[in-house]
Specification:
single chain, mainly alpha, 4 strands, globular, 7 helices, about 130 residues
């Protein structure tokens, strides 16, 4: 049995930075623009009233990953943090990514702005196609 997906918190972003860089929590916090991080982490739960834009767990995780890559809340490591948090969110929901590291890196780079640029919707669709049950 898997836990229901929860919205990642600012501390999750900071902890991911400590993993990616080997920084202390204080170093990660100094290197982060908190409002940008919190905005990206909320992306999966965007909506209006009771209507959510991203209704399934895969879309929520991919939207968060895309926005972390795009928002550049940290001075470095945003794309790696995006993959780490997105993968953790999927794992919590009983899913895993079935895609090569190189292909995943290219998807994240494209949603972050590398040509040819990929929209968030295209990124979500690509991640949806790469997700498998654990």
């Amino acid at each position: 049995m898997f836990l229901p997906m929860r919205r990642p918190r600012y501390n999750d972003f900071i902890n991911a930075l400590t993993i990616v860089h080997g920084w202390t929590i204080a170093q990660a916090e100094r290197a982060t623009k908190r409002p940008l991080a919190e905005s990206a982490l909320a992306a999966g739960w965007a909506g209006f009233g009771d209507v959510e834009i991203h209704e399934d767990d895969t879309a929520k995780a991919a939207a968060v990953g895309a926005q972390i890559a795009v928002n550049h809340a940290a001075i470095d490591g945003n794309k790696r943090v995006a993959v780490l948090i997105m993968s953790a969110m999927l794992a919590t929901a009983g899913m895993r990514l079935s895609i090569s590291d190189d292909d995943l890196a290219l998807l994240v780079e494209r949603v972050a702005g590398r040509e040819p640029v990929m929209t968030e919707v295209e990124f979500i669709d690509a991640i949806r196609g790469a997700v498998r049950p654990k």
